[in-house]
Amino acid sequence: MIKLISVCGEVFDGGFGLSEKAWVNLFDFFGRSIGATKKWDVVPGPVDYVVFYEEGRFKAKNVFEGVVEFESGSFVDVFKQVLNSIRPGGCIVLLRGEYPVDEPILIQKPIVLKGVHGGFSDVFFINDSVYYGLKDGVVLVDNTTSGIDVLKIGHGTGDYPLKFGVKLENITISAYKSSEYPKSDTDYKAGAGISIKDVNFVHLNRVTVYHKERGIYATTSSGLPQPTPSNVLKFENILLAYNKLGIELGGFTIDTRLSYIYGYLNQLGLIYGGGKYDIQIDHVFSNADSWNSEDVHYGAITIGSYGDMFLRDIFIYNTYGPNPAGLTGLFLSLNDARSKAFVDGLLIQGVNGDAIRIDGVGGEVYISNAYLGTDQDEGVAGGPGNIVGHCIRNYNSDIKVYVSNSYMYCDQSVCYVNVYMVKNSRGKGIPKAPEEISPDSSPYSWTNESPFVADVYVRGSVDRVTVKTEDGTANDVSYVGDVHVVLLPRETVEVAFTTAPVLVIRYRL
Questions:
Q1: Cβ(508)–Cβ(452) below 8 Å
Q2: Per-residue pLDDT tens for 459-503?
């Protein structure tokens, strides 16, 4: 008795949704394997249409009717007919193969589009001189000379926002056919693999894009009637390689969730842009992204928000060939005085500039558990892992940057610029060496300009000791006997004296 059927690592209830030409594993009631066959393909269900290529024709089978309902020599023609016929919320499955796309495919209704198998195998080798090509997946190929947006989701002309959901799964988009590989690292076609505009909600899972101007592009229209159009986005298990730019976000994007994003040799960066509110990015692996960028604003990841940003478990290896590449590892833009960014679990190595750059209007940035730079080889391709510039550069003093539990090493004498506070961290020049100061006139003021907490010891007799906070509030402290005051960053100690004392300053973590 057959109880379960296993397909590509997934298990489906037996007896549903079999179509032709692939394989299944069979198990008995107790979960024991009882055989396999290579004569069937299992279609994830429930499914409305199955699209495939057979005998020189593209065909769409209506699963419920059990008949081929549409067929043509053009994949786009067949797919348009399916889109026109499918019910809202319906599911389209593509069987394995390469599907030429000669004009943009416009999706303006809630559907699920799945491939029976993603294009993730051998993804880092598609341009290799020996082991190249797209391997065993569902591939939409930009079949034009100059390039197009292959999939366009939304882009409507009616009422806004378009309130429907679209899910894409197990789909690869490539600017070139497998037979046209290998290509140069700089080769790409214009347009986006997936272009999203004015849609709530889009979910991408196990999607790959190669050699496009933009891998994924999401934006909204301006000047439209209320309610304001917005994109609610969830991208997970995404691979972007050899594109000019991996993911670009713009417009009124809110509730953006990017998880398990993998980038390889995207010329200007893996993630660029920002949103209006609430951005969460986690589990990102970036290898040599932004290697061809000459603008510090195009880092491996460049992200901004008017609200809050949460980034977690980010790995950026920017070495390209034998040299550090790209001018920025991570660029954060805080576009409102109330903005906050939280970065936890971050590695950046091999950058020909600054590892982290921060700019904007105001707000606060909290960086914890960061490993920035090294004097050793980086951990992926083995090229140099040094940070040529600074580990952290903050362009705006109205933005307070807090660093904790981190390691910083760079080629400069100081690895941070305009950082408000550093705690429980190590690295080059951390903490600063002790200082001794002999005042030359009374009263004498010293401000803690470092990001470290400073212990100030006054050796000698004084007439007055005053501590001033960052906002200018003054508090006199006892000056009898040995004087010891603790200064936070940007706080000041002022001493009045007859005979000059010595100020001994020690920095702590």
A1: yes
A2: 998 999 999 999 999 999 887 778 999 999 999 999 999 999 999
Phi, psi of 84 (to 5 degrees): -70, -30
| Contact yes or no for 373/386 (Cβ under 8 A) | yes
Banded pLDDT at 458 (limits 50, 70, 90): very high
Please, what sign has the CA dihedral across residues 81, 203, 251, 199?
Answer: positive
CB 460 within 8 A of CB 499: yes
Per residue in 341-360, pLDDT (tens digit) is 999 999 999 999 999 999 99
- Provide the b/e sequence for 256-295 (b: ≥16 CB within 10 Å): bbbbbbbbbbbbbbbbbbbbbbbbbbbbbbbbbbbbbbee
Taking alpha carbons only, the member of 327, 458, 440 closest to residue 387 is: 327
Geometric angle at alpha carbon 108, from 244 and 258, rounded to 5°: 45
Record the tokens describing residue 273, joined without a space: 């842009």
20 - beta bridge partners?
A: 40
pTM for the complete prediction? Answer: 0.86
